[in-house]
């Protein structure tokens, strides 16, 4: 059974999807990732889909689900490295992934996450 | 006595060709700039060969016979090449119809003493050439349509350049009407450029779009959503007052999209997003 590795980097979790996701794998990833977020108390999740060239509505929904679940567990999700063809397909499918943060590459995604976390950390002491 | 028209014509092939060439050369629609007389002779000879060959095994009454297929093919070839070379329809038509004159005058010489037969055979020949003329025209127009389609593709390609305005900022001026096919090209080249240059901001300038209706607006919204999915921000600029009016009248919701009146203000917005500042340099 294939498994997609979930790496912990500082406050964040990072997932690099290097294979084309089939439905079972995507479902496993969803549950694994949510488990990992709650176990590690990560503040951000970075999903790199630069190697994914095929996407369908199910995959789009899974990505949305992951973002929604992480949000509930107080972690931001950033999807990075989407291929142009994938972006066009998602738009044509009517899934603009509202509420999901995106960035061009892992580096920029990291920056974005760090900014977000900093903002919330600065706010916290005032509470 | 039954005369064999095909045989007669075959026998007088040389004269037919000569006569036809003479007809073509005196006609004012001769285009020596597009094709030399030698080339024209070769082309004509080929056609006469094929035609007479086909006539020998075809019944002249049946103009839809399969035996005429090689003639049609030869004519189609000539017609398409002429369409691409820029011949006018009249010139192409004259090419075929002047053959009729040649054939008829040869026939006249051969069947001098039987007017009834002459009339009958002339009618058949004339019918045949007319049908060949129609084939020529059909292909001529098809050839022209191919030229038009190719040009449309070229226009679609050249009219969607992506410009690197600044490090991390790309702009794309859209000129002309946005339809589904063009949106696809626009989206693909814009997204590809964003990946290639790893730009954060894309500016879509629509000052060259003559009108925006709900369909065009939908295409724009799609492009903006796709850019966002890639992780870049998309600004739409160059919205003229009339276009702003139509957008509001049509009830199109562009509130989720950053819109600017000019490319300059879009660029200013891009700078502020990138935390850049444009300043006058100190006076020396």
UniProtKB/TrEMBL annotation, chain A:
InterPro entries, per the entry: Bact_StressResp_Reg, STAS_dom, STAS_dom_sf
STAS domain location: 1-113
Coiled coil: none
PROSITE patterns associated with the record: STAS
Domain of life of the native organism: Bacteria
Residues passing through the membrane, by range: none
SUPFAM superfamilies recorded: SpoIIaa-like
CDD domains: STAS_RsbR_RsbS_like
Pfam families: STAS (PF01740)
Protein name: STAS domain-containing protein
Species per Swiss-Prot/TrEMBL record: Chitinophaga rhizophila
From TrEMBL, chain B:
Keywords of the record: Phosphoprotein
Domain STAS: residue ranges: 159-270
Family annotation (Gene3D superfamilies): STAS domain
PROSITE patterns named in the record: STAS
Species whose genome carries this gene: Chitinophaga rhizophila
Protein name according to UniProt: STAS domain-containing protein
Pfam family, one: RsbRD_N
Tagged with keyword Cell membrane: no
InterPro entries: Bact_StressResp_Reg (IPR051932), RsbRD_N_dom (IPR025751), STAS_dom (IPR002645), STAS_dom_sf (IPR036513)
